[in-house]
Amino acid sequence: MTKRLLTVCALLALLSSSLFAQYDMKAPLPKDPNVRTGKLANGLTYYIRHNAEPKDRASFYIIQNVGAILENDDQNGLAHFLEHMAFNGTKHFPGRKGITNMLEKHGVEFGRNVNAYTAQDETVYNISDVPTTNEGLLDTCLLVLHDWSHYLLLVDEEIDGERGVISEEWRTRRDAGFRMRAVTMPVLLNDSKYAKRDVIGDLDIIKNFKYQTLRDYYHKWYRPDLQAIAVVGDFDAEKMEQKVKELFSKIPTPVNPAVRETFEVLPHDGIKFVCATDKEVTNSSIAVYIKYPAPTKEEKGLNEALKKGLVQSFYNTMLAQRISELLQKGNPPFINGSAGFAGGIVRGVNAYYFGATAKPNEEAEALEAIYRENERVKRFGFTRGELERAKTNMLVGLESANKQKDKTTSEAYIDEIKENFLEGDPIVDFDYYYEFAKAVIPTITVDEVSALAKQYIVPTNMVIIVQGPAEGVKHITEAEALATLKKVEDSQLEPYQDESAEAKLINKELKGSKIIATKKLPQFEAEEWTLENGAKIVFRKADFEKDQVAVASYSKGGTSLYGVDKLASAQVVADFVGAYGLGDYDAITLKKLLTGKQANVGIGIGGLSESVGGGSTPGDFETLMQLIYLKFEEPRFDKEVHNAIMQRNYAAIANMDNNPKKIMQDSISRIMSNYSPRNILFGKEFLDKISIEQIEEIYRDRIKDISDFTFFIVGNIDAETVKPLVEKYLGSVQSFNRKENWVDNKVRGPKGKTVKVIELPLQDPKATVITSFSKNMKTSIHDNICQNILKGVLDQRYLTNIREKEGGTYGVSVQAGSSREPYESYSMSMMFDCDPDKADHLKSLIYAEIDLLMKEAPTQEEISKVITTMKKNREQSKPHNNYWMSAIQTYYLRGIDITDPKNFDNIIDKITPKDVQKFTKKLFKGADVVDMTFIPEAK
Fold first, then answer.
1. What are the residues facing 756 on neighbouring strands?
2. Of the residues 223, 424, 479, 536, which has the fewest C-beta atoms closer than 10 A?
3. Is 137 within 8 Å of 75 (Cβ atoms)?
């Protein structure tokens, strides 16, 4: 540890000692005064909080302390089924789309803003980002929650209509991970009920249960004493509380309610072992879970719990750093690894975890290596230097969070509320936590953190889980795994050597260059500066995010300038160089040098351009500028790190050919590029073409000549602070006055209609249908808006006709795109999973809706829903710094001012159904079509 860091930490410890004394660790945590909470006579709990982020928006949640764990055997899957039914008719909103139709008229979008989820112990419904300027809408949202609480209709025909949707969701989830979890969970969860309830449930039950069976679950468990209402947003909290009390008090009190049982995962002595394999898995992994009881509600409510959370966080951070270092040196012992406190597995059970993705046939080696690092901590602990760096970074992060606390989203507050209601986690006021953490963190000792290893790494209640390919790999046995653990425990280990780092990022004087021209951009309240070396910088102060400065840049060229022989290296430059380090320092040392700094930088090399950019706090902006300078002038190319990355990549692809998803992705890529030689698939051939020499050559060619770059700086920092730092650091980067452009390599999709039916080695019957339309045509702002509206209309229609009426799929994904470079075009694609026997019929409905929209314009109601949502989302994004970064970049790169009403408001307000129909014809008539269906191999 450096002398400077020691001095800082010693001062912090002295300053905090008196502050720490005021906190009794056994004292209860104070309640957050900003949250109004109470319990009604019928047992329902409510939480109300005012929050102005986002402004003029509110979120409404009903949190049910019930889930799949409460199902009887004949109800397996019905907790989740019931969640779907909540959207298919309630007392005040009858019909399959009664709720969503009403909300979408106000820009509250199904899926994005209106949704729900079911877990083993909980079911949660939300209506988010609701405009608060319409008080009647707020009342309506409360009424929806009221209906979800007690007034679902559960009509026979609606139940039958949903069977197909959930059957297809079941099909979509049936992948290798799902199948292996079915093998491992009974062992990890010791054959408890948690191991028998996977939420999606039993397909036979989903298809055939009697209506009353679902109603029985609903009437037994959906009741106010097991429910909480949470409303957070930009409204009068007192008024909202009165509305909640008045409306929800009318829900009847349950009579003789069933006991809401809790379910245990019984502990076990010794070590359990399970190995799960699957033909579709590409990599082997080995994981060790050491289970222990989660803290009680009473324990969570003490100051001591906050401190324990900090201590565990430090432990996880330091151990993760050690594992990261292992992966950057020599011959890495595994592809990826992680360890530490993993939180809750299920309610009431936490776990300490360590595990690794292994190289083929090297599961024992991976287990030995990851366990060795845990055992090293157990024997020798962490070093003081490691802890002080972790403390410094956390304190800096807390300081940044404190500056941003008024920008905490309503959803973040609701997450705290949800955990309070379901698990008894305290709702802690940020100001209290901030002052507590500042006082406590400096007093935490390295011995205190290190002691956790001895406390939790024990061979009791331990489960070893091995997962991997079913063929072509030898998996570690239980005896071998146990022997490996013992080998580590009996081995001689050396303490971790923490090498200190204290130096300047830049070790020379920089001449810099002055700003020689300034241009005002009044429409953005921004300025453009030109430096003597030719670099352009566009600056705008934006202070919505108070502790943020973002830097982006752009230069033409990209990978388009390289032939096929260098293309693989060009495509991985950005991924590799970040691991090499920077300037005189490897990545490990650089991270230590940046302790206490919140600044990061990266480079990107895309198909047509390259960029250098990053972000920082206002206080660390100079560090960000230094890092950008080094990216240009002193890049680092580390052969050892490069070889380590390559070894891990080669290991990762060993069984990749068995993965149907990879086969599908490769097939799509090849077909959509019309088998262009520039489309090199990721695999051994791709990796064989990569060399560090080519990476260095391409990097030094692309991240060069600052006169060809335009930088964009947006954040909460003054121009007078930015100018001298830009002049010093960006002004010191060399210029070569190149005038570059990208090259059109003529990679195009196939012409006409291409139909492909491709068989995949799937374990479960599932078809994937992908239909893609593209057309070379001139782009315009008007047509871009029409395309977005068309996408929204198709989303609505496919949801109604393919998901709901047909019960044919869990959902159709519609993607829309446009391009101006290297050629102007529009595209739209549709993708869904389904029963292979229904694929052709359902695909015909994709085409049918397009044909219908070309013949008959969409309804005004259809486009109004989409337009309202687009306007709402745009208004919500406007205050944010990212909006201004996007606006300025769009202006420079495309010549369009998105802040000008003529480029959005004046267009969208005049768009008619006929306009959308006209664009539909323009796009789809004569479009090139790629029609792909992936089906299971014939057996």
1. 932
2. 479
3. no
The Cα-based distances of 791 to 311, 678, 698, 861, 870 in angstroms read 49, 30, 39, 15, 12
CA distance 578 to 603: 8
pLDDT at 330: 83
In the DSSP assignment, the letter for residue 800 is I
Q: What are phi and psi of 702, to 5 degrees?
A: -85, -45
CATH number of domain containing 370: 3.30.830.10
Record the tokens describing residue 841, joined without a space. 């019929």
Instruction: Convert the pLDDT of each residue in 596-610 to its tens digit.
Output: 999 999 999 999 999
d(CA 876, CA 233) in angstroms, rounded, equals: 13
Give me the domain span that covers residue 718.
Answer: 515-732
- Whether 499 maps to a domain, the answer reads no
For residues 153 and 302, membership in a common domain is answered with no
In a shared domain, residues 765 and 650: no
Instruction: Please report the pLDDT score of residue 703 as a whole number.
Output: 98
Q: Is the pLDDT assigned to residue 939 strictly greater than 80?
A: no
Total structural domains in the chain? 4
The two structure tokens encoding residue 283: 């990599």
Contacts 24+ apart (CB under 8 A), 668-674: 668/770, 668/932, 671/750, 671/754, 671/756, 671/930, 671/932, 672/749, 672/772, 672/930, 673/747, 673/749, 674/747, 674/748, 674/749, 674/750
Phi-psi region of 371 (alpha: psi -120 to 50; beta: other; left: phi over 0): alpha
Mean pLDDT of 164-189: 96
8 A C-beta contact, residue 528 and residue 891:
no
192, 341: one domain: no
Residues paired with residue 616 on neighbouring β-strands, in sequence order: 549, 599
Distances (CA, A) of 90 to 103, 227, 299, 471, 646: 14, 17, 40, 51, 57
Q: Look at residue 650 in the predicted model and tell me its pLDDT.
A: 95
The verdict on 681 and 775 lying in the same domain is: no
Phi, psi of 743 (to 5 degrees): -120, 135
d(CA 10, CA 130): 49
Whether the Cβ atoms of residue 768 and residue 832 lie closer than 8 Å to each other: yes
Q: What is the DSSP letter of 374?
A: H
Parallel, antiparallel, or unpaired for β 57-64 and 227-233?
A: antiparallel
Contacts for 134-142 with beta carbons within 8 Å, 24 or more apart?
A: 134/106, 137/106, 138/58, 138/235, 138/240, 138/243, 139/243, 140/102, 141/58, 141/60, 141/103, 142/60, 142/231, 142/243, 142/244, 142/247
Same domain, 289 and 399: yes
Secondary structure E strands in 99-254: 114-118, 123-131, 227-233
Q: What's residue 423's pLDDT?
A: 97
Structure tokens at 249: 């008090």
Cβ contact 597:626 at 8 Å: no
pLDDT tens-digit series, residues 804-825: 999 999 999 999 999 999 999 9
